[in-house]
Amino acid sequence: MRLEPVADPGLVRRIGLPALALVLTALAGAGLAAIAGADPLATLGQIATGAAGSRFAILETLNRATPLIFTGLAVAVAFRARLWNIGAEAQLYAGALVTVLIGTGLAGGWALALPKPALLALMALAAVAAGALVLLGPVILKTRAGVDEVVTTLLLNFVVLLFISLLLEGPLKDPAGMGWPKSPPLDRAARLPRIVEGLRLHWGFGLALIAAVAVWVIQTRTTLGFEMRAVGRNAAAARFAGMPVNRVLVRTALLSGGLAALAGFSEVAGLKGNLTLDLSPGYGYTGIIVAMLALLHPLGVVVAAVFVAGVFVGADAMSRSAGVPTYIADLLLATALLFMVLALQLTRFRVVRG
Amino acid sequence: MSALAEILMQASFWAAAVRIASPLILATMGELICERAGVLNLGIEGIMVAGAFTGWFTVYLGFGLWTGVLVALLTGMAFGLLHGTLVVPFGLSQHVVGLGITLLATSAAYFAYRVALPEVTSPPRIVPFPPLPVPGLSRLPVLGEALFSQTALTYLAFASVLATSVVLFRTPLGLALRAVGENPAAVEAQGLPVIGLRMGAVVAGSGLMAVGGAFLTLSAFSSFFFEMVNGRGWICIALVVFGAWMPGKALVGALLFGAFDALQIRLQQAPLGREVPYQVFLMLPYILSILALVLMSRRAGVPAALMVPWRKGER
Amino acid sequence: MTAGAAEARDGPVLRLDGITKRFGPLLANDGISLALARGEVVALLGENGAGKTTLMNVLFGHYTPDAGTVEVMGRALPHGHPRAAIAAGVGMVHQHFTLADNLTVLDNILIGTVPLLAPRLGRAAARARVEALSRDFGLAVHPDARVGALSVGERQRVEILKALYRDARILILDEPTAVLTPQESEALFATLRRMVADGLSVIFISHKLAEVMAIADRIVVLRQGRVAGEVAARDTDRARLAAMMVGAAVPEARVAPREAGAVLMALEDVTAPAEGGRTGLRGVSLELRAGRITGIAGVSGNGQATLAALVGGLARPAAGRLLLDGRAAGADWSPRAALAAGVARIPEDRHGAGAVGDFTLTENAVLEAYRDPPFSRRGWMDWRRARAFAAGLIADYDVRCPGPEAPMRLLSGGNMQKLILGRALAARPRVILANQPVRGLDVGAIAYVQSRLVAARDGGAAVLLISEDLDEVMGLSDVIHVISAGRLSPAFPRGTMTPAELGLWMAGHGFGEEDADAA
User: Of C381, C410, C378, C334, which Cα lies nearest the Cα of C389?
Assistant: First the structure.
């Protein structure tokens, strides 16, 4: 067998194949539930109701989607320029760390005296800077010394997490934390407000939506976005056309790292209120799935992040009642990812014999 | 300084270094075979987790240790088949598929563990491979304890280096594999199956990765717990670069890494080490891997067609 | 030569019958039949795109034909199995070599000759045989050399050795002289004559009339996928072959003599290192004058790529000066600086460097000028203006395409090149770098691109034309330099040199005593 390009894929191919990928994923989920000894259809139903069956469930899903929108955007921006940033996890924690340093007054009490909007803006910007800085190292190694960024960003995840662990057991440790490795809580002034009073959805979600639109505008309307897309599609042609390829990669890295760091800012200031080692259950890695499911489109990232968050939240709820392990969520997402990239390839190529 | 010298003189230190290196050696050979054939296999981390689980679970169910190794091998080959199918004939992004396979294999192992053992709180133990002293050689000073009093799987790791080296550089199959990683069109022009060769390399390499993972549960720790692979797969990818895609050099890299890791564990317990937060020591292996990548980045040796998908009839 | 006698002795060693192959709407081979006798050289003559390479790929099992049969030594070959062709004694030397650079010569020859699952390669015996073959056929190359370190001519020898090592009785050479100097070509012909004397048969694919007449016993001319004629070499001449090949008269680019203007760009004793597989430059001096086409002739890989990189802004001189209007280009010489200085570039590799296949025509149209008004202001793109610009190029340069929003990869090579040409010329450049501007294009597109370049020259631009096709360089250029092993010959005004004289320069003669044997 071999692949032959399809010059103009029809609507059936473009919509039908990705839809088929999702159907196959659902079938795989049913199969997994059966393996775990639960009723397949009921399990899928429970995941769906757990994700979107009530106002509480929906808000929970949107809350969970918030960091995934940020990390998904971070990955989408980087992958679009063919910069393989697998280090969103580290950048997220860098953002969270800086948020805590400022928001608890550990970096100086003067910050807490600022008006609330200024304080929040300062925290967010500092987080962006920290995340950008974490990705700057690998990208400079890539552009200057030709070191593959996949492995360096992956390895940096472990380094940064250990560094956070070191701080949480040392200088950042909450004296009132009963010995647990966690930071002191943020000052009340440093917390992101709820979007609607009384509803458990904070302004981090709003910021994530704004970020998605901003990234979309940058990619489609600005010269920088044009450069980032050109470098990703054909770096040799971009260089020949006079684009500063390395500088574009560095700018992409700053944007990508900053976006991932906003996930950390939003989780700490909007939801958790302090920094622990389980702040992120792998949001940085899940961002890769989100970005791929969204075909790297910034607005698609929002949809994909809500979908992925729904699978997680729904699986949590289902697991409590049906007893199927929550790891079914990761399995389903991995399956969806692989089916989806295959479906996309088959919209562009058809399989022929010989 | 004298504390350091004292550690370096201990046979037990070198034995630990070899023990730590063993799973890395197996998985690094697996990755090296894949990359020599032109396929970057980022599924390595997850495949090691899956191998660690299935190998352990087989023994936990009452089968023999070698059956466990065989099941791990087959597990790895199955994931390799999936990875290979997606990236070789279908030509999907090796980055995306590799990370997807890592997520799939990891979560499949965790899911299966929870389904099989819903009630346990502490991980059940098995009886792992015992040390197997080589008659005569194990009595050599230092070297005897370091190299010849290890478990059977460590010997297997060393054998895998020899086998990889011989197959790659001395047999027609190895020549075809190297050629397919350099210039698939040259291989197709001779009527050899490019897709079959790459698939075979990915399947075989993935099998070795899984056996490397199984070393953790069947030889090193005797039970399966989450996060146990902990980035070892990514380190193996760095070791392949460090070894300039040569099995012997990669072995040296893995042993150096093992020695360094064994050293940091001992330094943690030294009087001076207790002053330093333990996380600093734990970070060192990852930082060392990054440094190795930087040092080796200018060297040649990377297969010319690595990560380049190949489609029949294209030249 | 011996063709008639050989044919009388036994039947054809190879017979292609009614081969038809289509690629989508394109009929690449239309019922082609062809026979080859023992000890015979048949030339397959035709323009680019006539279907020569497709036919040979069918014969060699790379493509499965839609109709027709292939017989070797009287036995039918199964389609789509390169192994079957090799086993039947067919060897092929592709236009683009299929060698693995990081492997040795010996390993490259051995690939596929030993059963995959055999325990050993048997290198010692193989080395002895390779050495014997090199000796017998005059193919000097060291078996343990890394292929990546060999010259192009040596690599071709490795390819021929590969075929001979497999006991090939029929050797197919696809455009073998495209990468050789005239002198290397002569050596190749000597090897081929030895092989024919030894009873082998050769199919020689080419579009060069002179060498076809020199080497072939019989000539089969292909045009638009069909056999346009078949003739014995002794019964024909170049003019008749040319007529068969093109069918109708080719519109030549008109180049009237013209007074050259000021020097717009110059290289002064420039040296540049070899980088990324390119040959470097040694002490190159060159003047590009307004209203003049300066042609660079030479065999591929002799420093053309580095020269193009220097002029196009991708490389800087290590020594010597690059002058623009008499002022030396600074350390900031880059593609962007080149564009700003009015240098337009038509790259050699239009798919790799000239265009982004996944981008639309609009995006490709502004790939170079996107930073400047009217296409963007203060970092914000104005896509409406960009689209209008692209639509203008499509109309002005006759780019056949679904529209400005279609992806570039859907375009044929000729239409892609027209858009790149339009993009380059729209900036009203003072200097135009045209690197292999018509390679791989069909006849109509070639004439069109060439006439546009001449028009730009008539409009006062300085054109640097780099081409491996000597006919093209001689037909278009006002002055010609020859490049060889990184050195540049003096400028030869139009009509002062014969092809043979230029060929000597291409082979490295004339550059001075100390370098005479370097090439």
Answer: C381
User: Could you give the percent of chain C with pLDDT greater than 90?
Assistant: 42
CB contact under 8 A, B97 and A338: yes
Tell me if C396 is assigned to some domain.
yes
Residue C393 domain boundaries: 350-428
Shortest Cα distance, chain B CAs vs residue A117, angstroms: 36
Phi-psi bin for C463: left (phi > 0), alpha (psi -120 to 50), beta? Answer: beta
Residues C415 and C448 in one domain: no
Residue C309 belongs to some domain of the structure:
yes
Give the closest-approach CA distance of A331 to chain C in angstroms. 32
Q: Which residues contact A89 (CB under 8 A, 6 or more apart)?
A: A157, A160, A161, A280, A282, A283, A284, A285
The answer to whether residue C25 neighbours chain A at the CB level (below 8 Å) is no
Cβ separation of A240 and C347 shorter than 8 Å? yes
Contact C381 A354 (CB under 8 A): no
Chain A CB contacts of B282 below 8 Å: 162
Crossing angle between the packed helical segments C443-458 and C413-426, to the nearest 10 degrees = 10
CA distance A288 to chain C (A): 22
Claim to verify: residue C179 and residue C228 sit in the same structural domain: yes
Domain boundary among C428, C456, C476: C428
Given C215, C246, C277, the domain boundary residue is C246
Q: Domain check: are C178 and C42 in the same one?
A: yes
DSSP SS3 for A219: helix
| pLDDT tens digit sequence for B125-153 | 999 999 888 887 878 877 777 788 789 99
Mean pLDDT, residues B259-269 taken together: 86
* C357 interfacial to chain A (CB closer than 8 Å): yes
User: What is the secondary structure of C433-446 as a DSSP string?
Assistant: EEESTTTT--HHHH
In order of their start, the domains of chain B are 11-115+147-296 (1.10.3470)
What's the pLDDT score for residue C233? 85
Closest listed residue to residue A157, CA positions, set B263, B105, B234: B234
pLDDT digits (tens, 9 = 90+) for C85-142: 888 888 888 877 888 888 999 999 999 888 888 888 889 999 999 999 998 888 888 9
> Closest Cα of chain A to B89: distance in Å?
7
Instruction: Tell me the one-letter amino acid at C265.
Output: M
Domain ranges of chain A: 66-296
Taking CB atoms and an 8 Å limit, are B186 and C101 in contact across chains? no
Closest by Cβ to B186, choosing from C98, C114, C118: C98
- C210 and C327 in a single domain? The answer is no
Contacts of C347 in chain A (CB under 8 A): 240
Put simply, the chain C residues between 259 and 318 with a CB less than 8 A from any chain A CB are 312-314
Q: How many CB pairs below 8 A link A and C? A: 67
C428: left (phi over 0), alpha (psi -120 to 50) or beta: left
| Domain contains C160 | no
The chain B residue lying nearest A1, using CA atoms, is B89
pLDDT at A75: 97
Amino acid found at C133: L
Q: Number of folded domains in chain C?
A: 4
Q: What is the pLDDT of residues A239-248, one digit of tens each?
A: 999 999 999 9
Together in a domain, C266 and C397: no
Task: Over range C394-412, report the average pLDDT.
Answer: 88
Place C10 in a pLDDT band, splitting at 50, 70 and 90. Answer: low
Whether this model's pTM surpasses 0.95: no
Q: What is the pLDDT of residue A256?
A: 98
C437 and C418 part of one domain: no
Rounded Cα distance between B291 and A113, Å, is 43
pLDDT at B182 over 50: yes
C417 & C503 share domain = no
Q: Is residue C42 part of a domain?
A: yes
Phi and psi, residue B261, nearest 5°: -65, -45
**CATH assignment of the domain containing C486:** 3.40.50.300
Q: Do C278 and C401 reside in the same domain of the chain?
A: no
pLDDT digits (tens, 9 = 90+) for C433-445: 999 998 877 777 8
Tokens describing residue C215: 């080497």
Which of B89, B111, B282 is the closest to A327 by Cβ? B111
The percent of residues above 90 in pLDDT, for chain B, comes to 61
pLDDT value of residue C363? 96
